[in-house]
Specification:
Layout: E1 2-15, E2 18-31, E3 35-39, H1 46-53, E4 61-66, E5 69-70, H2 76-86, E6 87-90, H3 102-113, H4 118-131, H5 147-159, E7 165-169, H6 177-194, E8 197-201, H7 205-210, E9 213-218, E10 221-227
Parallel strand pairs: 3-8, 3-9, 6-7, 7-8
Antiparallel strand pairs: 1-2, 1-4, 4-5, 9-10
Helix pairs in contact: 3-4, 3-5, 4-5
Bound molecules: adenosine-5'-diphosphate and magnesium ion.
Length: 234
């Protein structure tokens, strides 16, 4: 099943008198239950593309289908609903809520979009905090933990609703090797058990090594595609 399909997607930003063409005629499709990685230099359009796939922004041209819906046809309310129910985000700058504790940050999506009973919510939050080894920091606030720890909280928050699609913008950039591998194995377990689809932007060779499909993006253009079988990647 195809979960993301882009046909000639373009995106430009207007800033004052200058127009920046961030994506040009980008076409690809991503199968459900796979791990895909977009790699490319800074400024090549990776974050722009993830924001479009995550329905946080709309393409300027072309067609983009996510989870079978044409994202241009979703209005604000429906696109928020769609996101909340289907997509987990790991933002490049974490986007943790500063006035909420670590625990409350991870609980937040469950409170916002899912009608999850309190006891079940607690179980889900604690499971994820343990999985990212942050359970002992759960009462701290974001400004009391390190960058790598914030990253782990952001990952727990993105995964807590078991979304169909997880978008991760350079998710292991702030993590040490051991933690990065731990997070990667957590993601692979979700993929195997729940058929979660993961789309990364990354420079990290560890992630690139796990991805079944790798797209190279340069100056807003897809310049390369490399596929590996899910079963036989080393
Ligand atoms: P990457 O994530 O690969 O570093 P981005 O998607 O952030 O690349 O940026 C692609 C291009 O679009 C860059 O030239 C960047 O400066 C520009 N850009 C990104 N976001 C905006 C924005 N909100 N307004 C104007 N230009 C932007
Ligand atoms: Mg970026």
């Amino acid at each position: 099943m195809t979960i993301v399909k882009a046909e000639n997607v373009g995106k430009f930003y207007e800033t004052g008198t200058v127009t920046v063409q961030a994506l040009k005629d980008v076409s690809f499709s991503i199968e459900a239950g796979t791990i895909t990685s977009f790699i490319g230099p800074s400024g090549s359009g990776k974050t722009t593309l993830l924001n479009l796939i995550g329905c946080l922004d709309k393409p300027s041209s072309g067609r983009l289908d996510v989870g079978g819906s044409n994202v241009l046809a979703l209005d604000r309310t429906n696109s928020a609903k769609f996101r909340g129910g289907n997509i987990g985000f790991i933002f490049q700058d974490f986007n943790l809520v500063p006035i909420l504790t670590v625990y409350e940050n991870v609980e937040y999506p469950l409170v916002m979009v899912r009608d999850t009973p309190a006891a079940e919510r607690r179980k889900l939050v604690l499971n994820l905090l343990e999985a990212v080894e942050m359970a002992d920091q759960s009462e701290k606030y974001p400004d009391q933990i390190s960058g790598g720890q914030k990253q782990r909280v952001a990952i727990a928050r993105a995964l807590v609703t078991s979304p169909k699609l997880v978008l991760a913008d350079e998710p292991t950039a702030n993590l040490d090797h051991k933690t990065a591998y731990m997070i990667l194995s957590l993601m692979k377990k979700m993929r195997d058990e729940l058929s979660t689809t993961f789309i990364f932007s990354t420079h990290d060779p560890k992630i690139v090594g796990e991805a079944e499909c790798i797209y190279t993006i340069e100056d807003g253009i897809l310049t390369g595609q490399q596929e590996k079988g899910a079963a036989n990647h080393a």
